[in-house]
UniProtKB/TrEMBL annotation:
The keyword Membrane applies. This is Inner membrane protein. The keyword Membrane applies. Keywords: Membrane, Transmembrane, Transmembrane helix. The chain crosses the membrane at residues 68-90, 99-124, 136-158, 165-182. Coiled coil: none annotated. Pfam families: YdjM (PF04307). It comes from Thiohalophilus thiocyanatoxydans. InterPro entries: Transcription_regulator, YdjM-like.
Amino acid sequence: MDTLTHGLSSVLLARATAPESRDAPDSRILSLRTRLTAGFLAGIFPDSDFVLRLIDGPLAYLKYHRGVTHSVLMLPLWAWLLSLLFMLLWRGRYHWKAFYAVCVMSLGIHIFGDVITSFGTMILSPFSYAKFSLPSTFIIDFWFTGIIGLALIAAWIWRRQGQQVALAGLATLALYVALQHLQAWEARDLGQEYARHQGLEQAEVHALPQPLSPFNWKIVIEQAQQYHVTYVNLQRKQVVPEPDEQAGMFARINAIYRPQDNLAWQTLPRYGEGIGQALARDVWQQEVLKDIRDFMLFPALYRIEQREQGLCAWYEDHRFILGDARNVPFRFGACRNGDSDWQLYRYQGDRIIPLSP
């Protein structure tokens, strides 16, 4: 989930759980403005791990993003430290305990908002780096954010009923996520039906949430040597005509998703085709690509090519591929000259960026 949505969802939760205000000052009870501000700041705190990219480049970001700052095991400690920080920021006007519950709730709803996306969250860090995901929501979901925004605006307009309005907003948000989970099951059922009909053995079916609509899904059927991929809109009855060259980005994305009864399945090899397959498999198992293997969920060969740096094999993750768009994030590979060791690179546009020490 994007950082702004995390902050706003924390504000909504803080508003929904705000105690009744008191006329007399009380260091144990935050004012509403202070409560909402602290909720927002605590809600965006876990994404402060973006500084890893600035400190140690994209590889550290891939390894540790959504790690220790997103851990449910570390949550009580982070909440305590943030409470102390907020006590200092508000110059001792409130006791740190007044901030603690808000911080716990804000961190908790942030972690929840990330777990329901497909990126993966290390909720047991630092004791385990396993990534957990219950993918129901695209990482930038305008409907999800819109529900939160409308609820906050309504709570501000109807201030006397602000708590009830915020609670209604949270309930609506919960129903929306529940609807998305139902859509995920339906999308997986379509994939399982296709796998049975095609006689695909040892196939694992995945449904990934997509942009623009909760009814847009990408279905990935994973096998050892290949993937079967399709894009579906679970409520669409007709195929959207191919947009012309002048169409905007949203129109082009919208046209990708087809009705359930008119799906266009693609079979995509994991390691390419032809004589390069053996090389692609060999390079993928090199130690220099270990962190990339740990990160990519649906890895596939992008291309093998000869560059100034030597022979290069590039890999991408079908999790981040949208239709025929080739501007794919997180594309990595390895290159070597002759019998030298393989060196790790990131493929970004037409440039390649060295990542090996």
